[in-house]
Amino acid sequence: MATHLGLDPDIDLPDIESAMAAAGDFELPRAFRSQARVWSETEFKTYLDKITQGVQVHPSEAPDVDLDLQLPHRGSLLRQDVMQLAHAFLLRHFLKKGDERYVFVLDADSGLALSFVAAFAKRIKEASTDVIVVRFDKHQSSDQRNMLVGDGKAALELATGIARSQWPSVNVSDQIELTDISIQGMLEDHLLGEPFAWPFHTKSEPHRRIRILTDRSDMAPDRRARLMRLATLRSVDSYFHIVRSNIRFAARPAHTPSGNGRAWDRHYLYNPETMVKVVEIYRFAHNWMGSSKTKETPAMKLGFARGKMRASEFFG
Question: What is the distance between the alpha carbons of residues 145 and 198, in angstroms, rounded to a whole number?
Fold first, then answer.
Protein backbone atom coordinates (compact mmCIF):
# COMPACT_ATOMS: atom_id res chain seq x y z
CA MET A 1 0.00 0.00 0.00
CA ALA A 2 2.88 2.36 0.67
CA THR A 3 6.65 2.38 0.32
CA HIS A 4 8.66 5.04 2.06
CA LEU A 5 12.35 5.84 2.17
CA GLY A 6 13.81 8.22 4.74
CA LEU A 7 14.30 11.16 2.39
CA ASP A 8 12.47 14.42 1.77
CA PRO A 9 13.70 15.54 -1.67
CA ASP A 10 11.94 18.93 -1.51
CA ILE A 11 14.10 20.64 1.11
CA ASP A 12 17.91 20.80 1.25
CA LEU A 13 20.29 20.79 4.22
CA PRO A 14 21.37 24.47 4.09
CA ASP A 15 17.71 25.51 4.19
CA ILE A 16 17.05 23.15 7.12
CA GLU A 17 19.99 24.46 9.12
CA SER A 18 19.05 28.13 8.62
CA ALA A 19 15.34 27.51 9.30
CA MET A 20 16.12 25.68 12.55
CA ALA A 21 18.51 28.40 13.70
CA ALA A 22 15.97 31.13 12.90
CA ALA A 23 13.19 29.32 14.77
CA GLY A 24 15.38 28.55 17.80
CA ASP A 25 14.91 24.80 17.27
CA PHE A 26 18.33 23.90 18.65
CA GLU A 27 17.29 25.20 22.10
CA LEU A 28 14.04 23.17 22.13
CA PRO A 29 13.29 19.50 22.82
CA ARG A 30 12.90 17.79 19.45
CA ALA A 31 9.16 17.17 19.88
CA PHE A 32 8.51 20.92 19.97
CA ARG A 33 10.65 21.96 17.03
CA SER A 34 9.37 23.42 13.79
CA GLN A 35 11.74 21.03 11.95
CA ALA A 36 11.44 17.96 14.20
CA ARG A 37 11.12 15.47 11.36
CA VAL A 38 14.54 15.92 9.72
CA TRP A 39 18.19 15.69 10.69
CA SER A 40 20.23 18.87 10.76
CA GLU A 41 23.81 18.59 9.53
CA THR A 42 25.36 19.60 12.85
CA GLU A 43 23.24 17.17 14.90
CA PHE A 44 23.88 14.33 12.50
CA LYS A 45 27.62 14.93 12.78
CA THR A 46 27.35 14.83 16.59
CA TYR A 47 25.36 11.59 16.34
CA LEU A 48 28.00 10.00 14.10
CA ASP A 49 30.79 11.06 16.43
CA LYS A 50 28.94 9.36 19.27
CA ILE A 51 28.36 6.02 17.55
CA THR A 52 31.84 5.87 15.98
CA GLN A 53 33.86 7.04 18.98
CA GLY A 54 35.23 3.52 19.56
CA VAL A 55 36.13 2.93 15.90
CA GLN A 56 39.84 3.07 15.04
CA VAL A 57 40.46 4.73 11.67
CA HIS A 58 43.84 5.22 10.06
CA PRO A 59 44.60 8.98 9.68
CA SER A 60 45.08 8.63 5.93
CA GLU A 61 41.60 7.10 5.59
CA ALA A 62 39.78 9.52 7.90
CA PRO A 63 38.73 11.97 5.11
CA ASP A 64 37.22 9.12 3.08
CA VAL A 65 35.33 7.84 6.11
CA ASP A 66 33.86 11.29 6.75
CA LEU A 67 32.65 11.39 3.15
CA ASP A 68 31.11 7.92 3.47
CA LEU A 69 29.10 8.98 6.53
CA GLN A 70 27.74 12.26 5.24
CA LEU A 71 24.13 13.22 4.66
CA PRO A 72 22.76 13.34 1.07
CA HIS A 73 23.83 16.38 -0.96
CA ARG A 74 20.26 16.91 -2.13
CA GLY A 75 17.16 16.54 0.01
CA SER A 76 17.02 15.88 3.74
CA LEU A 77 17.26 12.70 5.79
CA LEU A 78 14.11 12.02 7.82
CA ARG A 79 14.32 10.89 11.42
CA GLN A 80 13.20 7.29 11.61
CA ASP A 81 10.67 7.62 14.43
CA VAL A 82 8.81 10.44 12.65
CA MET A 83 8.82 8.53 9.37
CA GLN A 84 7.43 5.37 11.03
CA LEU A 85 4.62 7.30 12.68
CA ALA A 86 3.74 9.07 9.43
CA HIS A 87 3.71 5.72 7.61
CA ALA A 88 1.26 4.23 10.13
CA PHE A 89 -1.08 7.22 9.98
CA LEU A 90 -1.01 7.21 6.16
CA LEU A 91 -2.05 3.54 6.17
CA ARG A 92 -4.90 4.43 8.49
CA HIS A 93 -5.94 7.11 6.00
CA PHE A 94 -5.83 4.60 3.13
CA LEU A 95 -7.88 2.01 5.00
CA LYS A 96 -10.60 4.56 5.87
CA LYS A 97 -13.46 3.61 8.16
CA GLY A 98 -15.04 0.20 7.95
CA ASP A 99 -16.07 -2.90 9.82
CA GLU A 100 -13.06 -4.96 8.76
CA ARG A 101 -10.72 -6.39 11.36
CA TYR A 102 -7.06 -5.58 10.82
CA VAL A 103 -4.01 -7.53 11.93
CA PHE A 104 -0.64 -5.80 11.58
CA VAL A 105 2.38 -8.09 11.78
CA LEU A 106 5.57 -6.11 12.29
CA ASP A 107 9.28 -6.66 12.61
CA ALA A 108 10.73 -6.33 16.10
CA ASP A 109 11.25 -2.57 15.89
CA SER A 110 9.77 -0.91 18.97
CA GLY A 111 9.30 2.42 17.20
CA LEU A 112 7.32 0.88 14.35
CA ALA A 113 5.09 -1.14 16.69
CA LEU A 114 4.33 1.87 18.89
CA SER A 115 3.55 3.92 15.78
CA PHE A 116 0.86 1.47 14.71
CA VAL A 117 -0.54 1.28 18.24
CA ALA A 118 -0.82 5.09 18.27
CA ALA A 119 -2.33 5.34 14.79
CA PHE A 120 -4.95 2.64 15.37
CA ALA A 121 -5.56 3.26 19.10
CA LYS A 122 -9.32 3.73 18.67
CA ARG A 123 -9.74 0.51 16.70
CA ILE A 124 -7.52 -1.36 19.16
CA LYS A 125 -9.73 -0.16 22.01
CA GLU A 126 -12.73 -1.47 20.07
CA ALA A 127 -10.92 -4.83 19.64
CA SER A 128 -11.12 -4.53 15.84
CA THR A 129 -7.35 -4.24 15.28
CA ASP A 130 -4.42 -6.27 16.56
CA VAL A 131 -0.71 -5.44 16.43
CA ILE A 132 1.76 -8.32 16.56
CA VAL A 133 5.55 -8.19 16.73
CA VAL A 134 7.60 -11.07 15.33
CA ARG A 135 11.28 -11.78 15.73
CA PHE A 136 13.31 -14.81 14.65
CA ASP A 137 16.92 -15.91 14.31
CA LYS A 138 18.11 -14.53 10.98
CA HIS A 139 21.65 -15.85 11.39
CA GLN A 140 20.95 -19.58 11.19
CA SER A 141 22.70 -21.47 8.40
CA SER A 142 20.72 -23.53 5.90
CA ASP A 143 21.73 -26.78 7.62
CA GLN A 144 20.69 -25.42 11.02
CA ARG A 145 17.35 -24.31 9.59
CA ASN A 146 16.73 -27.76 8.11
CA MET A 147 17.45 -29.37 11.47
CA LEU A 148 14.97 -27.03 13.15
CA VAL A 149 12.33 -27.87 10.55
CA GLY A 150 12.77 -31.52 11.50
CA ASP A 151 12.35 -30.62 15.17
CA GLY A 152 9.23 -28.65 14.28
CA LYS A 153 7.69 -31.58 12.42
CA ALA A 154 8.40 -33.83 15.40
CA ALA A 155 6.72 -31.29 17.71
CA LEU A 156 3.71 -31.10 15.40
CA GLU A 157 3.43 -34.90 15.35
CA LEU A 158 3.53 -35.00 19.14
CA ALA A 159 0.97 -32.19 19.52
CA THR A 160 -1.57 -33.50 17.00
CA GLY A 161 -1.03 -37.25 17.19
CA ILE A 162 -0.68 -37.43 13.41
CA ALA A 163 2.52 -38.92 12.00
CA ARG A 164 4.57 -36.56 9.86
CA SER A 165 4.35 -39.01 6.96
CA GLN A 166 0.53 -38.74 7.08
CA TRP A 167 0.39 -34.96 7.56
CA PRO A 168 0.58 -34.05 3.83
CA SER A 169 -2.47 -36.22 3.12
CA VAL A 170 -4.59 -34.21 5.60
CA ASN A 171 -6.58 -31.50 3.81
CA VAL A 172 -5.52 -27.90 4.44
CA SER A 173 -8.56 -26.84 6.49
CA ASP A 174 -8.04 -29.76 8.86
CA GLN A 175 -4.32 -28.97 9.13
CA ILE A 176 -5.20 -25.41 10.15
CA GLU A 177 -7.78 -26.56 12.69
CA LEU A 178 -5.45 -29.14 14.25
CA THR A 179 -2.62 -26.59 14.48
CA ASP A 180 -4.87 -24.00 16.13
CA ILE A 181 -6.20 -26.52 18.66
CA SER A 182 -2.64 -27.52 19.56
CA ILE A 183 -1.51 -23.90 19.97
CA GLN A 184 -4.62 -23.07 21.98
CA GLY A 185 -3.69 -25.76 24.48
CA MET A 186 -0.13 -24.44 24.76
CA LEU A 187 -1.43 -20.92 25.44
CA GLU A 188 -3.61 -21.87 28.40
CA ASP A 189 -0.93 -20.97 30.95
CA HIS A 190 0.76 -18.33 28.78
CA LEU A 191 0.89 -14.81 30.26
CA LEU A 192 -0.91 -12.10 28.30
CA GLY A 193 1.39 -9.96 26.18
CA GLU A 194 4.41 -12.20 26.71
CA PRO A 195 6.40 -13.51 23.71
CA PHE A 196 5.35 -16.97 22.57
CA ALA A 197 7.92 -19.35 21.08
CA TRP A 198 6.36 -20.93 17.99
CA PRO A 199 7.05 -24.66 18.37
CA PHE A 200 6.59 -25.76 14.74
CA HIS A 201 9.73 -24.28 13.20
CA THR A 202 9.85 -23.21 9.56
CA LYS A 203 12.91 -22.73 7.40
CA SER A 204 12.11 -19.10 6.62
CA GLU A 205 11.60 -18.11 10.28
CA PRO A 206 13.58 -20.31 12.68
CA HIS A 207 13.06 -19.76 16.42
CA ARG A 208 10.11 -17.47 15.76
CA ARG A 209 8.90 -15.54 18.79
CA ILE A 210 5.50 -13.86 18.64
CA ARG A 211 4.19 -11.11 20.87
CA ILE A 212 0.61 -9.82 20.54
CA LEU A 213 0.88 -6.23 21.75
CA THR A 214 -2.90 -5.92 21.80
CA ASP A 215 -3.46 -9.13 23.75
CA ARG A 216 -6.31 -8.90 26.27
CA SER A 217 -8.00 -11.16 28.81
CA ASP A 218 -11.32 -11.16 26.96
CA MET A 219 -9.81 -12.33 23.67
CA ALA A 220 -11.27 -15.69 22.65
CA PRO A 221 -8.68 -18.47 23.05
CA ASP A 222 -9.26 -19.75 19.51
CA ARG A 223 -8.66 -16.24 18.10
CA ARG A 224 -5.43 -15.88 20.08
CA ALA A 225 -4.23 -19.21 18.69
CA ARG A 226 -5.23 -18.16 15.17
CA LEU A 227 -3.31 -14.87 15.49
CA MET A 228 -0.23 -16.79 16.59
CA ARG A 229 -0.48 -18.97 13.49
CA LEU A 230 -0.99 -16.01 11.16
CA ALA A 231 1.85 -13.97 12.68
CA THR A 232 4.55 -14.28 10.05
CA LEU A 233 6.74 -11.86 8.11
CA ARG A 234 7.35 -14.30 5.30
CA SER A 235 5.36 -12.40 2.64
CA VAL A 236 6.98 -9.08 3.60
CA ASP A 237 10.48 -10.56 3.59
CA SER A 238 9.72 -12.21 0.26
CA TYR A 239 8.77 -8.85 -1.25
CA PHE A 240 11.93 -7.22 0.13
CA HIS A 241 13.98 -10.05 -1.36
CA ILE A 242 12.32 -9.55 -4.74
CA VAL A 243 13.04 -5.82 -4.63
CA ARG A 244 16.69 -6.34 -3.69
CA SER A 245 17.10 -9.01 -6.37
CA ASN A 246 15.42 -7.12 -9.21
CA ILE A 247 16.61 -3.58 -8.39
CA ARG A 248 20.38 -3.54 -8.33
CA PHE A 249 20.49 -0.21 -6.51
CA ALA A 250 18.53 -1.74 -3.59
CA ALA A 251 20.88 -4.69 -3.03
CA ARG A 252 22.57 -4.98 0.33
CA PRO A 253 26.04 -3.37 0.40
CA ALA A 254 28.98 -5.70 -0.11
CA HIS A 255 32.00 -5.56 2.20
CA THR A 256 35.55 -6.61 1.36
CA PRO A 257 38.58 -7.03 3.67
CA SER A 258 40.51 -4.46 1.67
CA GLY A 259 37.74 -1.90 2.13
CA ASN A 260 38.27 -1.63 5.90
CA GLY A 261 34.57 -2.35 6.48
CA ARG A 262 33.35 0.26 4.02
CA ALA A 263 30.93 -0.61 1.24
CA TRP A 264 30.73 0.79 -2.26
CA ASP A 265 29.34 -0.42 -5.56
CA ARG A 266 29.49 1.17 -8.96
CA HIS A 267 25.78 0.44 -9.45
CA TYR A 268 24.64 2.44 -6.41
CA LEU A 269 22.82 5.73 -6.88
CA TYR A 270 24.44 9.04 -6.08
CA ASN A 271 21.09 10.84 -5.95
CA PRO A 272 18.84 9.14 -3.38
CA GLU A 273 15.75 10.82 -4.83
CA THR A 274 16.08 8.47 -7.80
CA MET A 275 15.69 5.50 -5.45
CA VAL A 276 12.45 6.97 -4.08
CA LYS A 277 11.05 7.08 -7.62
CA VAL A 278 12.34 3.64 -8.63
CA VAL A 279 10.94 1.90 -5.54
CA GLU A 280 7.53 3.55 -5.99
CA ILE A 281 7.39 2.54 -9.66
CA TYR A 282 8.37 -1.01 -8.70
CA ARG A 283 5.65 -1.14 -6.03
CA PHE A 284 3.03 -0.19 -8.63
CA ALA A 285 4.36 -2.68 -11.16
CA HIS A 286 4.37 -5.47 -8.56
CA ASN A 287 0.81 -4.77 -7.40
CA TRP A 288 -0.89 -4.05 -10.69
CA MET A 289 1.22 -5.33 -13.58
CA GLY A 290 3.32 -8.29 -12.50
CA SER A 291 5.72 -10.08 -14.81
CA SER A 292 5.04 -12.21 -17.88
CA LYS A 293 4.77 -15.24 -15.57
CA THR A 294 2.34 -13.62 -13.12
CA LYS A 295 -1.14 -15.11 -13.35
CA GLU A 296 -2.76 -13.05 -10.59
CA THR A 297 -1.40 -9.76 -9.24
CA PRO A 298 -1.94 -8.63 -5.63
CA ALA A 299 -4.49 -6.08 -6.88
CA MET A 300 -6.44 -8.89 -8.56
CA LYS A 301 -6.31 -11.04 -5.42
CA LEU A 302 -7.81 -8.21 -3.37
CA GLY A 303 -10.51 -7.51 -5.95
CA PHE A 304 -9.14 -4.11 -7.01
CA ALA A 305 -8.48 -5.17 -10.61
CA ARG A 306 -10.07 -7.58 -13.07
CA GLY A 307 -6.82 -8.24 -14.88
CA LYS A 308 -3.19 -7.27 -15.25
CA MET A 309 -2.36 -3.78 -16.41
CA ARG A 310 0.03 -3.69 -19.36
CA ALA A 311 2.83 -1.33 -20.27
CA SER A 312 1.05 -0.51 -23.56
CA GLU A 313 -1.70 1.15 -21.50
CA PHE A 314 0.84 3.72 -20.30
CA PHE A 315 3.27 3.98 -23.19
CA GLY A 316 1.94 4.08 -26.72
Answer: 14
Cβ–Cβ under 8 Å, residues 205 and 233: yes
CA-based nearest residue to 228, from 294, 181, 264: 181
Beta bridge partners of 87: none
- Spatial distance between the Cα atoms of 192 and 187, rounded to a whole number of angstroms: 9
Instruction: Give the burial string for 54-65 (b: 16+ CB within 10 Å, else e).
Output: eeeeeeeeeeeb
pLDDT in tens, 214-268: 999 999 999 999 999 999 999 888 888 888 888 887 777 666 666 666 666 666 7
Q: Which backbone phi and psi does 105 adopt, to 5 degrees?
A: -105, 120
Residue 120 burial class via C-beta count within 10 angstroms: exposed 0-12, middle 13-18, buried 19 and up: buried
Measured in degrees and rounded to the nearest 5, phi and psi for residue 212 equal: -85, 105
The three-state (H, E, C) secondary structure of 16-37, written as one string = HHHHHHHHCHHHCCHHHCCCCC
What pTM did the predictor assign? 0.81
First-to-last C-alpha distance (Å) of the chain: 27
Kindly report the backbone phi and psi dihedral angles of residue 189, in degrees, each rounded to the nearest multiple of 5, phi listed first.
-105, 15
Dist CA 44 CA 52 (whole Å): 12
- Provide CB contacts within 8 A for 286, sequence distance 6+: 239, 242, 297, 298
**Cβ-proximal residues to 39 (8 Å cutoff; 6+ apart), any chain:** 47, 71, 76, 77, 78, 79
Residue 17 amino acid letter? E
